[in-house]
Amino acid sequence: MSLDRLSSFLRKKSMLKTTYMYRIQKHVFYMEAENGDQLILKRHNNRLRVEHQWHFFDRQTCSFIVPFRRFPNDKRFLIDNGYCWTISPYIPGRKLNYASPGDRAASLRTLQTFHTETKGIRINRPFRKELFYQRWYNRLQRFKNTEHLFKQLGFATLFLNIVQTTEHQLQELAHSPLSNLENESLKTGIWIHGDVASHNFIRYDGHVFMIDFDLLTCTSGIYDYIQLGQRFLPYLDWDLNRLMSYKMVHEKHLKLWLDAILLPSDIMREWLHYINGNSSRLAHDYLTELETNWNKRQSFLKMVQTVLN
């Protein structure tokens, strides 16, 4: 849909009159309304996930969460050709950068506050996803389907190492209390953001805001900290002691957390995103950098094995 058609659609279906609009990503737009509001317009593929977020936003009270807002005609979302459209306030600040120690600390504090202040929220008909263990297993199967690309480009050994490490860590986690934690969190009402990439934390006017709750889930908070640990590590020189200094999880969950961090779910996620996207980057260059990072990761693996054994 062209910007002109999109502007006409918004005016006709929601009474939202725009004076300026530009595309940020394929399905995300910045726009300015006639009344001066700065907004983010987003297209979603899954209506149930949008309704799930709305139910959560209706019940949460955190000032640093950037929720959806209603359209001028009071609709929560618009439907067009099977897609859902939502609007949210635009936060004009700076995205956090995990290369900065201050930004790493700020993201962790904000995430911890999010988990504490949203605990106990109950919503009707929450959007259910498969357990994380099953999600990681399914991701591994999709990753295995790309073996031919690794072989064609001369990275067969790298592929084998990633698969073997993933299978080993899945076996370790199969005997962990992960499923018990998930069930307890469902009963208690623990919520995770689900995508703690640095660009989902915005620093503005002395505060840090959280945006983009598409992966919002009622489950154990440890999953946010697993992902955050994986995202911090490249900026910590893969040093276990520096990672441990953040004290993300309780000591009784330390082994579980480290075992999950060792599972290269992030590598598989980013690779699958790359091959399914429209990146202009050469696959050989991508895998060359991945191999370098994988080798750095091995020092962390050895440190963790020493601590756990």
Explained architecture:
The protein has 309 residues and is α+β, with helices and mostly antiparallel strands. The protein has 2 domains: 3-90, Phosphorylase Kinase, domain 1; 101-308, Aminoglycoside 3'-phosphotransferase, Chain: A, domain 2. 50% of the residues lie in helices and 15% in strands. The chain contains 12 helices and 10 strands. The chain has helices at 3-14, 47-59, 101-117, 132-144, 147-152, 156-174, 178-188, 222-232, 240-244, 254-262, 265-276, 283-308, and strands at 18-25, 28-33, 38-44, 78-80, 83-89, 94-95, 191-192, 201-204, 207-210, 217-218. Helix 4 crosses helix 11. The mean pLDDT is 94.
Q: Would you spell out the secondary-structure blueprint of this structure?
A:
Layout: H1 3-14, E1 18-25, E2 28-33, E3 38-44, H2 47-59, E4 78-80, E5 83-89, E6 94-95, H3 101-117, H4 132-144, H5 147-152, H6 156-174, H7 178-188, E7 191-192, E8 201-204, E9 207-210, E10 217-218, H8 222-232, H9 240-244, H10 254-262, H11 265-276, H12 283-308
Helix pairs in contact: 4-6, 4-11, 6-10, 8-10
In a few lines, what is going on in this structure?
The chain has 309 residues and is an alpha+beta fold. Helices cover 50% and strands 15% of the residues.
Order of helices and strands: HEEEHEEEHHHHHEEEEHHHHH
Instruction: Assess the beta-strand content as a share of residues.
Output: 5-15%
The DSSP helix count reads 12
- The percent of residues in helical segments reads 40-55%
CATH topology of the largest domain: Aminoglycoside 3'-phosphotransferase, Chain: A, domain 2
Overall average pLDDT = 94
Q: What would you call the shape?
A: globular
- What is the CATH H-level superfamily of the largest domain? Aminoglycoside phosphotransferase (APH), C-terminal lobe
CATH architecture of the largest domain: Alpha-Beta Complex
Oligomer: single chain
Low-confidence residue ranges: none
Q: CA-to-CA gap between the ends?
A: 56 Å
**Rg over CA atoms:** 21 Å
What is the level 1 CATH name of the largest domain?
Alpha Beta
Number of β-strand runs? 10
- Tell me the structural class: alpha+beta
Strand order of the largest sheet: 1-2-3-5-4
What's the main sheet like? 5 strands, antiparallel
Compute the number of structural domains.
Answer: 2
